[in-house]
Amino acid sequence: MTSPQRKSFGSDNHAGAHPAILSAVLAANAGDATAYGDDPLTEQTVSRLREAFGAAAAFLVFGGTAANVLGLSLLVRPFEAVICAESAHLNENECGATERALGSKLLAVPTPDGKLTPGLMAARLAGRGDAHHAQPRAVEIAQATEVGTCYTLRELQEIREFCDEHDLLLYMDGARLANAAAHLGCTLAELAGHADVLSLGGTKNGALGAEAVIVMNEAHAVAAPYQRMQLMQLASKMRFLAAQFGALLDDGLWLRNASQANRMARRLADGLAGMPGFRLAYPAEANGVFAVLPAAQASRLQQDWNFHVWADLPGGECVARWMTAFDTTEADVDEFIAAIRVTAGHGHPVA
Amino acid sequence: MTSPQRKSFGSDNHAGAHPAILSAVLAANAGDATAYGDDPLTEQTVSRLREAFGAAAAFLVFGGTAANVLGLSLLVRPFEAVICAESAHLNENECGATERALGSKLLAVPTPDGKLTPGLMAARLAGRGDAHHAQPRAVEIAQATEVGTCYTLRELQEIREFCDEHDLLLYMDGARLANAAAHLGCTLAELAGHADVLSLGGTKNGALGAEAVIVMNEAHAVAAPYQRMQLMQLASKMRFLAAQFGALLDDGLWLRNASQANRMARRLADGLAGMPGFRLAYPAEANGVFAVLPAAQASRLQQDWNFHVWADLPGGECVARWMTAFDTTEADVDEFIAAIRVTAGHGHPVA
Amino acid sequence: MTSPQRKSFGSDNHAGAHPAILSAVLAANAGDATAYGDDPLTEQTVSRLREAFGAAAAFLVFGGTAANVLGLSLLVRPFEAVICAESAHLNENECGATERALGSKLLAVPTPDGKLTPGLMAARLAGRGDAHHAQPRAVEIAQATEVGTCYTLRELQEIREFCDEHDLLLYMDGARLANAAAHLGCTLAELAGHADVLSLGGTKNGALGAEAVIVMNEAHAVAAPYQRMQLMQLASKMRFLAAQFGALLDDGLWLRNASQANRMARRLADGLAGMPGFRLAYPAEANGVFAVLPAAQASRLQQDWNFHVWADLPGGECVARWMTAFDTTEADVDEFIAAIRVTAGHGHPVA
Amino acid sequence: MTSPQRKSFGSDNHAGAHPAILSAVLAANAGDATAYGDDPLTEQTVSRLREAFGAAAAFLVFGGTAANVLGLSLLVRPFEAVICAESAHLNENECGATERALGSKLLAVPTPDGKLTPGLMAARLAGRGDAHHAQPRAVEIAQATEVGTCYTLRELQEIREFCDEHDLLLYMDGARLANAAAHLGCTLAELAGHADVLSLGGTKNGALGAEAVIVMNEAHAVAAPYQRMQLMQLASKMRFLAAQFGALLDDGLWLRNASQANRMARRLADGLAGMPGFRLAYPAEANGVFAVLPAAQASRLQQDWNFHVWADLPGGECVARWMTAFDTTEADVDEFIAAIRVTAGHGHPVA
Hints:
Four copies of one chain form a homotetramer.
Chain A lengths: L18 H10 L11 H14 L3 E5 L2 H10 L6 E6 L3 H4 L4 H6 L3 E4 L8 H5 L12 E8 L10 H13 L3 E5 L3 H8 L3 H5 L4 E5 L9 E5 L2 H4 L2 H7 L8 H11 L3 H20 L6 E2 L7 E7 H10 L3 E5 L4 E7 L6 H14 L8
Helix pairs in contact in A: 1-12, 2-12, 8-13, 13-15
């Protein structure tokens, strides 16, 4: 399924690691270091993360699913439920990890664009105080969302206010938080200020594989070391996770990587504008382009290019998901646009 | 707690990664690769692992606790229990990860040397067929054990036969499997042949952080991809885990690393022989030396050297755990022995 | 909230126990009996249940939520999901018991009438074979449903065929199975023949409190004794649960109780026919009437009568749920109809 | 296995229900009652329980295992562990219900007589603050214990003080709390005053089947309604559980029942005194006699009498468990003593 000669638009996970990340890992390899995070590099990196977010604590973990589960483990008990978008990664793409690890129910809401709103959340608040119902206690949002959209700061503020009014805690899945910050032109702290706990994705931002769970309030952090261990996320050679985040924080690498990916998605979206048979399913605000096109054309494109069909639509159309990464180049995008152009005009949707 | 100038004897996790591992990770970074293991390097590495073990399947995960939990998830249901040594890592050092992820009870047995025997296992078989009792269904052994001992092939054979006679499945925690193979002079397949599922530790063997779950029988492997994902262990950039195991398998690096560590532990144990006030708590068969010494002396040593006190003993003695790694040198050991010698004669145990 | 002078239409759980049930419990009290079901009355009752259902095994438990969880525990593992109607009791009214006890995700589907169909089930089959998705493994249907409708035998047959085609197991929540059998004029075995595991509700059928889990195939029954105990459902004085089911099976009491309740619901539905401002939300096929009426009128009625508002509708209307029980009389229904009539004409919906 | 002609000494669960319990259930059957505990009888009974215990709240559940799990669910999170005696019912006889429902590890300690002491508890406090270890957070004791012994009020006080000093919460398994109160001549409140949460067993005290979870402090009670529902313990026809506790509280029936059972155990123990080959394994302080006798003799006795062999001892001896109930009579005991006398002198232990 890989096509070594052509850039993959299949996932931001298809990219390798940024050279600076690799250099940092190599540098971290010198000498011994106490395991499980009790080493200077980890302490320093965690401290930098805390500062960047204005947070009480930060915990490094292996992957994005784990970050979500660990993050929510700090906010809900088994009889408490999490309101989320139906399209949420933790609802659709994590094999039920949250339900298993936490015992908690997800209260999923269909959304038009991957984004919750106060109105959509309100629809899942029924049954509070009634022992027959799992009790809504936290809200989960992804920033950026799984469909390439971003909450504006105002939208985040409205969600935060809704949470406060209704005694709900807010967890933000930040697997692509850097892309959201790049899109909004805001700081990580500005995003984090709306959440109780959030994640910062390193893997999709150029790391080998590392995510951070950021805890804004000390009270929510007390159990985190134990939860992380019990949830199988305590790295023994922690310095190598720390090194990755250290490199991302150096000279704003996280932001440059995300900005590059976002720009390439924007370039791709712009390049499709006006192409017959095409339209965007969602605005391309982060590093993904979700395009509606004839399914037959998508199939033809997939012969040479690596990407996922996100959804089948009636009438012979589908939604293709095209992701860009920190290392996607203008030439990659332009080659892809050219290929799309070639396949266009064929495979018109069924009338 | 780190002492950069002196080799740590605190854990085989205090070492960094072997240069060949780092080179392999760098080499794996070229170009795009489909995520979640659907890439050529992962396929090739998994194939090599299968071959080395004579196994049906192999699954890469992030850490040792996860390997244990995933491995056991393939063998037991929540009402089924796991017989293990009281000193088992999964019983004592994983914050209850097994109980939480699987819902299963551990039936722990005190052992003289970290090793189960048919007699010890038999003591935990009570209550089979009685719904009030968690049903013993699997046995967990560590090879090498947590206290530096190894099961002989004959002992493994006896345990396997006991399991077969009593309808028990066998999981082998191989966080230090390489050290056991080096000690016994046997192949990985010879060890694996006694187990149903086992792990192969990469991290303590010179990797950055990677473990493998090896499944001997196809029937036990069917659920593994889903269990791995739900248990938060599916790496997106899987090629980087694969690269680490690829390097360990190249030219027997895994064996050279383990052999070096074992030799250094042996050298340390030999160097202590006859030193007054010292004795080995367990035979030094893998890469750890567990030495009984006066607690006051251990404290003094800890001022300059990084290691754990494993247990306090009556009479002012303690058991110190001294671990060696692939990169421990003869000079490191000799320097440590000299330091021990200097502190000896002081801190006699309370009469 | 109870109104002792007037029959409650709030729930079939508001009724007490049928006198024959109480007599059976008293009779069962004579002498000693070995605990946990190892007594002659339990053995005999279980045997009668097996025969009535053509089943391999039957297990008595305390309540309906437990019956659902135990039943599903025999069919799914944590990474396997259960397709169900959004209105399913186990989805909406059991505080997330399934998710917590089993770790499994529920794949809930909106339905027009509480009933799944092959088409609705097919919509939740996405992601099979993909480790990112909880794997659909079982289907849950309630017979009768939570909104007073019943699957016809033909509909059950279609669901069974769909399950067989798609390698799905079928669990039937039979909290009101007797009402469904009474409605359809079929045997319990005819209903059970479509399921792999199902429950038989005693509590809503005139018992003090007892439910049975019926397992059609021996292979699914093997783990049941242990699951029942671990799920906290093994009664020590089991004879008293057995006595209740014994009485229900005697002379078809279960059917007479259910038929009476159904008839009273039918009488109520008929009595409302043509009343201005009223319509049925769902056909009244079992022992519940779900009526659309002006919300203000429902509120007035609730001052004197015990019942739940099932849903608020736009335009000032609501759905009221009126349940009948084995002991609801024609006089009760007629008194209630008269009361409704009195409140009608007031509280017109907002234009 | 039942022997209808002879009183069972197999379990206090082999007895039926006290006539006053049955009368109360019958009386509670009149008319409708709102389900799930929202009825006057339940409210009144819960209020009486609160008063009897000086407690903040009380919750009725179906069985003893459930009471233990619900009780502990109010005190620990999954990474927190429960210190208990190895012989604890929740450790040995509940099929791992605690581990599954709560995800928590049990830290079991061997005891000489079923009773924890500060010294024994201290032995399981290792690893606090270390994320690798499940964190001891609660202590579980049974009062009376599973081997027929009772903690004195002074011993309870010492345990309470130990808990307070070490930031531990105390759960008391009161499946036989009435027997302990009868033995000690103290009130339920005096016992409860040492605990944070405890259970009150109805079933072994003459009920059909009902247990109560008593919560001393309001803060621990907040989650209880949801935990009870999610743990499948919310009875719909709650009035029938309430009726049982109501009857037990009337005129001190709970105390009379327990006192009678205790007296009969004492009479049995006294009757064995001096019988050759016999000795008590534990003092008979509640309603059980644990007697050491030749195993061959125990086998012979079991041909005519229903009881369990608690443990096999070396040298051809065993420990027999003989339980008495509220309805055990002097004649029952005397007949049993006579039977034991007849079998004595045969089956001498191996020299």
